[in-house]
């Protein structure tokens, strides 16, 4: 049996082009530890680096018949490893950005859906509370809270005393609080 360890890189490349498995094994043994160290230095992750180097050697075996090396074999393998590492980094970065985007959009969707539901429930409870108010009290309350008129302006507009308006708003608030609290306790 021939000792492949004594062959040069160019001789091994020629044998590899012919499909020689022993030439491939010698190339693997010669360069795998060096390429792995190079990939680990770039990726800072041994598992990813091993995947990259395995991909390089798989590509080398699958494309052995088409192999044309114009530089040294080591330069060819280092360059292939560097390109594969950069591709891995780009892919990881894009995957990370996509994952972050999906997570952010999901959280926004959940929050906005919850807020929309809460707003609808609150609006329903307010309407329900308003419906419980007597007509005059409701009118006073709506002028106070929804049109933001002062007690004096409401009294003048409805021909009531300031004291009556103040009492009507106070009573309306009490009824509304009770209505909202009942709704919340049922909801919880």
From TrEMBL:
Which GO molecular function terms does the record list? DNA binding; sigma factor activity
Ranges of residues in domain RNA polymerase sigma factor 70 region 4 type = 126-174
Annotated RNA polymerase sigma-70 region domain residues: 27-91
Q: Tell me, what's a Pfam family for it?
A: Sigma70_r2
The UniProt entry, under CDD domains, shows: Sigma70_r4
Sorted alphabetically, the Gene Ontology BP terms of this entry are: DNA-templated transcription initiation
**What InterPro entries does the entry give?**
RNA_pol_sigma-70-like (IPR039425), RNA_pol_sigma-70_dom (IPR014284), RNA_pol_sigma70_bacteroid (IPR014327), RNA_pol_sigma70_r2 (IPR007627), RNA_pol_sigma70_r4_t2 (IPR013249), RNA_pol_sigma_r2 (IPR013325), RNA_pol_sigma_r3/r4-like (IPR013324), WH-like_DNA-bd_sf (IPR036388)
Listed A to Z, the keywords are: Sigma factor, Transcription, Transcription regulation
Q: Which PANTHER family match?
A: RNA POLYMERASE ECF-TYPE SIGMA FACTO, RNA POLYMERASE SIGMA-70 FACTOR ECF SUBFAMILY
Family (UniProt)? Belongs to the sigma-70 factor family. ECF subfamily.
State the NCBIfam families in the record.
Answer: Sig70_bacteroi1, sigma70-ECF
Q: What is this protein called?
A: RNA polymerase sigma-70 factor
Organism from which the protein derives: Pedobacter heparinus (strain ATCC 13125 / DSM 2366 / CIP 104194 / JCM 7457 / NBRC 12017 / NCIMB 9290 / NRRL B-14731 / HIM 762-3)
């Amino acid at each position: 049996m021939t000792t492949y360890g004594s062959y040069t890189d160019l001789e091994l490349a020629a044998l590899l082009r012919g499909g020689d498995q022993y030439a491939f094994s010698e190339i693997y043994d010669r360069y795998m530890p060096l390429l792995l160290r190079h990939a680990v230095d770039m990726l800072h992750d041994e598992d990813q680096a091993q995947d990259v180097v395995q991909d390089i050697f798989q590509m080398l075996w699958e494309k052995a018949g088409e192999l044309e090396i114009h530089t040294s074999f080591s330069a060819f393998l280092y360059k292939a490893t560097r390109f594969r590492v950069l591709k891995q980094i780009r892919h990881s970065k894009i995957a990370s950005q996509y994952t972050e985007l999906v997570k952010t959009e999901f959280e926004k969707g959940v929050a906005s859906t919850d807020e929309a539901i809460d707003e609808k429930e609150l609006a329903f409870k307010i309407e329900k509370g308003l419906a419980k108010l007597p007509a005059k009290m409701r009118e006073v309350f709506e002028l106070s809270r929804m049109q933001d008129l002062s007690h004096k302006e409401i009294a003048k507009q409805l021909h009531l005393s300031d004291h009556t308006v103040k009492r009507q708003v106070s009573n309306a608030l009490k009824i509304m609080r009770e209505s909202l609290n009942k709704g919340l306790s049922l909801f919880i």
